[in-house]
Fold Phosphate regulon sensor protein PhoR.
Amino acid sequence: MQRALAYGAFTAVIAFLLGYFGETWMGWVLFYIGLSVHLAMHYRNFSRLERWSHKPVLDASLEGDGEWDAVFRRLYRHEKELLEKIEHRERDIARLIAAVHAMNDGIVLLDGEFRIQFCNKTAERQLDIDSSTDRGAAIANIVRQPRFIDYLGKGDFTRPLVLRLDRYFERVLSLYLIAYAEDHWLLQVKDITQTDRLDSMRRDFVANVSHELRTPLTVLSGFVETLQEIELDADSRRHYLQLMGEQSQRMQSIVQDLLTLSSIESAPPPEDQPVDMASLVDKLYRDAVALSAGRHDIRLDSDGQGDLLGAESELVSALANLVANAVRYTPAGGTITLIWKISAEGAEFAVQDTGIGIDPKHIPRLTERFYRVDRGRSRDAGGTGLGLAIVKHSLNRHQATLEITSKPGEGSRFATRFPASRVTGL
Ligand code: ADP
């Protein structure tokens, strides 16, 4: 600013002297001196601007003379505003990219030739893309699934493509290609492994239920036809009716177990109440004796103390199933022991038998619905294949665990363990 004033004053003095000396040689000399000084000043400022324009960094020290100073200041202000805007935008873009990386769905941006331009972290994991090396690579060279390559080739993206990958464990991905901007594609990848598993479980379940009910129903309708068409004597008639009764009893058990399972699975857990375990275990023991009808040696090894906080009906369903299984799968003459113990870690109810035992390969699957080691044996013994599924769900609702140890031909032990927080009344 001071320099601007100095140049202004200098110009005013020259103008004054020019007027004073008039059009004499002295006047012309002064005029040229003034003009040269002026031109030199403009040249100096122009050179500064020229130098700055090669590397326009924000520089508050860029000062000019006269009007140049105002121009430099305006330039400085514009540049500062511009840089602030850019910084703002960069922060927005960084936040946007962080949000895209945080998404549960995989996102891959592709150009018109399906080459990778950007890929979020989820897509890196899902499709094994390495962003540092795969940028610019054709996606078909990275996801080398023939069905995916076919999908890209056909160009019909109205429906998503479902891919099954089994690199580490089976994963099911649903891929959507969405056109965006001009000639660009957004590949959205959803991991539907869980929903696919649930879907197939639901399908299997419906198929299993239909199959389980169809068998006794077929037998039953066969007997009905026989009774309708053939004249039978009283004994045969009684025999047929007894068989029909068994089949309808079987259907009733299946439906009853299905209802129990569905109520345990879907209804909210009932209020916890203290359940008197001494009398419950005693009742289970008497049920076992009744079920066994003298075929087994039934023993009770009980602490006889302590209540369990929980839903009594669900606890009864779970524990009674273990007792019924022990009776069902222990040949006559075997021993079945009901154990109830309380320790500092919690409480344990176990059923130990000297029955047929289970091959270790079946143990992890025993709590699946309708899973049986020997289908015929289970049916003959009146099993529905749902007992251990009911046990598992009901124990889950009490934060309890089930441990199965067994040796084929020697016997099994089904132990349920409840956390100490559920034990009261000591
Ligand atoms: P089921 O109604 O067939 O008994 P569960 O779900 O209760 O169905 O049991 C699943 C399978 O586990 C049974 O079919 C049987 O093969 C096996 N199992 C269960 N308990 C025992 C046991 N105590 N001893 C031997 N096998 C058992």
Q: What stands out?
A: The first helix runs from residue 2 to 21. The chain has 13 helices and 13 strands.
